[in-house]
Prior knowledge:
The protein is an alpha+beta fold. The protein has three helices and six strands, in the order H-E-E-E-E-H-E-E-H. Strands 4-3-2-1-5-6 form a six-stranded antiparallel β-sheet, with no helix packed on it. 9% of the residues are buried. The mean pLDDT is 88.
Amino acid sequence: xxxxxxxxxxxLFLTVLLPAFFSCDKKQEKPIVNSNEITLIKLSNVGGQxxxxxxxxxxxxxxxxxxxxxxxxxxxxxxxxITHETWNQLSSSIDVKTLDKIKSSESKQAEDxxxxxxxxxTPKQSHVxxxxxxxxxxxxxxxxxxxxxxxxxPKEYR
Length: 158
């Protein structure tokens, strides 16, 4: 006994419903990823005699900060959404093509100094720089990023 008895229903099924089932089974295309696109920027300042820290994390849609002093047991956090324009302004100051040329320096924490660490992530690579301010040629892009960042941070986190 056939599953569909009426000839009209068979025609409807074969011409309309059957192709609809198969058309919904398309594979989704993978988005094209730009390997030079920055996906995350982190800036950390850690060290000193009192054990101070400030960690800033900026992504395409948000910014977050944690800062405090370990010896005083203080800690505070702040986070906020950012616009696409703000992200473009911050990330455009960093030239991904020159990141491999930036030189890090030795840690200052052993002498009760404060280390500045930048981490720049792209879809293919993660770059980490410690105290790269001694690289006067390539550090200018980080200075530009920091000055733009200061403009959007609340006063108590600058």
